[in-house]
Specification:
CATH class: Alpha Beta
Order of helices and strands: HHEEEEEHHEEEEEEEEEE
Helix content: 25-40%
Bound molecules: magnesium ion
CATH topology: Creatine Amidinohydrolase
CATH architecture: Alpha-Beta Complex
Strand order of the largest sheet: 8-7-9-14-15
Strand content: 15-25%
Largest sheet: 5 strands, antiparallel
Low-confidence stretches: none
Distance between the termini: 38 Å
Number of domains: 1
CATH superfamily: Creatinase/methionine aminopeptidase superfamily
Number of strands: 15
Shape: globular
Number of helices: 4
Length: about 250
């Protein structure tokens, strides 16, 4: 069931989104060679709690962290660990969720660690740009397939591949709500978008093949060919015109 949010609910979604966005900025500012993903996770956790919210991911399906932190060929759902140390040249995906008064924000970014390859930088920027291609069509009256097609066409035309095994989703009182929002699709197909829908739109883009597998820890998703993957996600509110980005804050 797709849930349309009223103005009171969207106000809470904006607050949850703001906390999520600020937590991600804090995480970004900690990134350097030598830091463990556990240290970043702890900072994200403590900040969300300080804001009067709770980390949406902590305990979700048994997940042991407040952030999913995934390095290089890890696509999503990386488990924070003292043994996972960032190194110069890595790319790191940080995915954060915060629940505030019953409503969730969900957002992810991919960051370079020090100096990274030109290919890695291009992968990161194409992934981000594909999200903004989706924003051009994510509005009342269009369809979920318009969003997926916009992402897919942009990514494929730039020579990268789309992860199909995982998708974006509705977000609200539940972290994952209907509808599923694939990062591929056919324009004009799928559920219709309505003002008041809140969606987590999140392209996952691989440098090599689209195939992924799950590691023995039962969480970490990695690319099948060991090549790099990037992720970019915001929670957005669908309106009659441009969507409102719930998990983006200006930085001053
Ligand atoms: Mg997420
Ligand atoms: Mg999500």
């Amino acid at each position: 069931m797709i849930i349309i949010k009223n103005s009171e609910q969207t106000a809470l979604m904006k607050k949850a989104g703001r906390i999520t966005a600020e937590a991600l900025l804090l995480a970004r500012d900690m990134i350097r060679p030598g830091i463990s993903t556990k240290e970043i996770d702890k900072r994200v956790h403590d900040f969300i709690i300080k804001c009067g919210a709770t980390p949406s991911f902590l305990g979700y399906g048994g997940f042991p962290g407040s952030a999913c932190i995934s390095i290089n060929d890890e696509v999503i759902h990386g488990i924070p660990s003292e043994r996972k140390i960032l190194a110069e040249g890595d790319i790191v995906k940080i995915d954060v969720g915060a629940r505030y008064r019953g409503y969730n924000g969900d957002s992810a970014r991919t960051f370079p660690v020090g100096k990274v390859s030109d290919e890695a930088l291009r992968l990161i920027s194409v992934t981000e740009e594909s999200f903004y291609e989706a924003m051009k069509v994510a509005r009342h009256g269009n369809r979920v397939g318009d969003v997926g097609a916009a992402i897919e066409n942009f990514v494929i035309s730039n020579g990268f591949s789309i992860v199909r095994a995982y998708t974006g989703h509705g977000v609200g009182a539940e972290l994952h709500e209907d509808p599923s929002v694939p990062n591929y699709g056919r324009a004009g197909r799928g559920p219709r978008l309505y003002s008041g829908m809140t969606l987590a739109i999140e392209p996952m883009v691989n440098a090599g093949v689209e195939d992924v597998r799950v590691l023995k820890d039962k969480w970490t998703v990695v690319t099948a060919d060991g090549k790099l993957s990037a992720h970019y996600e915001n929670s957005v509110l669908i309106t009659d015109s441009d969507p409102i980005l719930l998990t983006v804050v200006s930085e001053n």
